[in-house]
Amino acid sequence: MTVSRESSKAVYQGIKDAGIRFITALPETWLVYLLQMADDDPEMCLVEVAKEEEAIGVAAGAHFAGTPNLLLMQNHGFLGAINGIVSLSMLYNIPLCMLIAHRGHMGEPYPWHTRGGIVTEPVLRGLGIPFDYARDPRHIARQVREAHTFASSSLSPVALLLTRDLMEGEE
Amino acid sequence: MKRTQCIEALYGELDQWLVVTIMGACAQELYDLGHCENFFYLQHAMGLASSIGLGLAMNLPQEKVLVLDGDGSVLMNLGTLATLARYRPKNLVHIIFDNGSMLSTGGFATHTTSGVTDLAAIARGAGIPHVAAVSSFYEFMEAASAAFDRNELSVIVAKVEATGPDHFGMDLKLPENAFRFERLIRERKRQIVAA
To answer: Residue A168, class by beta-carbon neighbours within 10 Å (0-12 exposed, 13-18 middle, 19+ buried)?
Structure first.
């Protein structure tokens, strides 16, 4: 299986249509085309961090600056960023729109992804972070827009989980 | 040299800056001089003050951003120095007050105590273009003045005594600080557009 270029295009179009012009990210296999598209797009500013928790701070700065923005990361990066999410985003009511590659779930062949994948949804529920699964490229643009809208209106973190159905494809 | 002395010396110039501080003594000492709407106090999420500064600086090229950080906080997010160096915002000055101590949580020694870990060397190694290491008030003022005028990403590591205020508390709720800080930035943008 490879990463779906078509679905990645659909996700990126959704990001652009939502008015996002600033992305903070850390590379991950499923996000490879998305990050390339962001990097090649003169309208987009892409910041790659050394660890995902930094991205929570960078996103808060972008929010204060009035720039519509979102985060791209793997679920293990989300797990590593939790203190920033709780003690910056939630504590100060700062919107945070996270697109998270949901590795380590049904169909996952790599053992190292499995534990993080299994606990991702329960951790999101435990933190009270609204989330949705993105499975179908036909709906992804709307889902990205709605996740960003809801983060902005609720002043809270919101997660859109990019699933295997969406991100993998035969090419 | 005391941190409070350094912050007091800068205070008069801060109206031109967006200021992000870390939690505890550093935030309190700035607040006690008189809160301004362009101050944001990160009262938790240790390590992320400089990341907020990066997000601000990259999105607001017309503004100047000052981060008042500490050794304990920077040690929790050393990657930030590499990220700052990679994106090199010209309008960001990052001052790290190094008191070698987790002062606000019992005064335990950090890795920088007695010079074991050299944060200025780490910043240089991370690729920060201008790094100053200072230990006297005179050197601090010289380094701060150069950094404020330079229009290049600058880091100052200032060795200070492990002393802080004898009280903590602000008449400012945390989300209120965030809301007002964001509103001030919006108003400053509007003024620039109008002018």
So the answer is: middle
pLDDT tens digits, one per residue of A29-73: 999 999 999 999 999 999 999 999 999 999 999 999 999 999 999
On chain B, the residues whose CB falls within 8 A of the CB of A45 are 58-59
For residue B76, how many C-alpha atoms fall within 13 Å in the half-sphere facing its CB?
20
C-beta atoms of A63 and B87 within 8 A? no
The model carries a pTM of 0.97
For residue A44, the chain B residue with the least C-alpha distance is: B59
d(CA A141, CA A156): 20
Q: Which residue from B minimizes the CA distance to A82?
A: B45
| Pair A67, A98: CB distance under 8 Å | no
Contacts of B149 (CB under 8 A, 6+ apart): none
Q: Is B43 on the interface with A (CB under 8 A)?
A: yes
Tokens at A78, concatenated: 């989300």
Q: What pLDDT, in 10s, does the model give residues A90-129?
A: 999 999 999 999 999 999 999 999 999 999 999 999 999 9
Q: How far is B83 from chain A (nearest CA, A)?
A: 6
Contact B129, B153 (CB under 8 A): yes
